[in-house]
Amino acid sequence: MKSSKILLATALLTFAAAGNALAFHEGGVAYCDGCHTMHNSSGNKAMSGGRNTGLTGWNAAGKASTTQFQGNAFLLQGSDDSSTCLNCHAANDAAPTGYHVMTFPAPAVNAAAPVERTPGGDFAWLTQTFPKAGYAAQSIGERHGHNVVAQDYGLLADATLTVAPGGQYDAKSLSCASCHDPHSRARIVDTNGTIAYAKPGQKVLPIGNSGSYGAQPDANEAVGVYRLLGGANYSQMSYSNPLPFNADPPVAVAPSTYNRSEATTDTRVAYGQGMSEWCSNCHRAIHNNNTNASNTALIHPAGNGAKLTAAANDLAGNATGTTIANLYNAYKTSGDLTGSQTTSYTSLVPYEEGTGVIATLAGHADNTGTQTAGPTTGSENVMCLSCHRAHASGFNSMTRWNNNSEFLTVGGAYPDYAAAAGTDALKNSNGMNQAIYQAAMYDRPATQFAYDQRSLCNKCHAKD
User: Fold this and answer.
1) For strand 222-224 and strand 207-209, is the pairing parallel, antiparallel, or unpaired?
2) Cα–Cα distance between 331 and 317 in angstroms, integer?
3) How far apart are CA 305 and CA 252, in angstroms?
4) What is the mean pLDDT of residues 60-69?
5) What does the alpha-carbon distance between residue 282 and residue 110 come to, in Å, rounded to a whole number?
6) Does the pLDDT value for residue 44 go beyond 90?
7) Between vectors from CA 452 to CA 446 and to CA 301, what angle results, nearest 5°?
8) Are 306 and 379 in contact (CB under 8 A)?
9) What are the φ and ψ backbone dihedral angles of 19, each rounded to 5 degrees?
10) DSSP alpha helices (H): ranges in 254-357?
């Protein structure tokens, strides 16, 4: 009996460490007391979940100084939406761990890097303002990602972009719940990724599992949508958004262990379809299909219609007869176009597969280095996350690599703020020391790139 209990406990611990958050969210609304406190009291004491001792109104133990029975808005356990989420999703980890999306406390600039390596990125990059380096301007922390407001964790509204670029969303109201629906009623109801909702007067299958890791609905249970993203008509409860969402969440599948170093193998999320369309819920003017079709505003194509089968252009703008997909597959590093379709994929430049079939996507979601094939079906497309991370990165505009310098590697090594004045290593460093730069590249060794590697825009455009 004792041995069976030990085995069960070991199995549960292993599952919890695997990297997903199934034990709490299970694909839909979690148990209420996980996020809310009915009376702000536990054991006859105040129980606010805040942790930031650097702000006024906080005590030495890191708890908000609200008194018993005087709680927060919406009965939240944190001072605001994002703080409530980060009560579970932020941690002082020594290595990437589970479902954590913020290193807290955030490290001192250039002393250590944010720890988490989720595909979406670590929100602690928002706190990292790197100094001016050579001809590169200062890299300001608030430019590194979505500036969610989390008072308990020292995250503030974007002071520069006061509304969403291309939209109307008020930066002061941006929170985790602006994108993720904590009470998610959206669900996937068939193996083709069809999304439905629980609505008055309508019956749908109950959510029985997360939809982020390849689980499929059956005759009795639906699965949740990818990452609990808000569905069509979603509007954050704590903000009267004048424009409710008009697009459903994307269909995608992640490997169950996704918060990990990519020093040896990529973490491949199999993005299916709909990501850019979903991002356009807030960034509508940036992702307007009609504008992209006519190219009147010179907006980079992104979305289900931005196929990698489009013809590439030469330096004069003329079609070359080569498709973007062929360039993606051939490109290895700057100057090296000897790559093969079977090994061409990189999570630094992911793409959508153009399908909602869950089994197909689940077969490609991987962290072992066995799913390395690039585009082949003709249905693949460029999306927002081909260039950006969803949460934050070490680089401006939360890009996956540094787009504010000419070289990503110099002389076979990453750039370095500690390099001598006037050197290319300093000029291209983004103000980071070499170790921080490598961490921002998810720990990949510089030897994976060319001796002098240029922008990874070239993975699709091969202009280097």
Assistant:
1) parallel
2) 20
3) 17
4) 56
5) 33
6) no
7) 90
8) no
9) 120, -10
10) 275-279, 289-294, 324-330
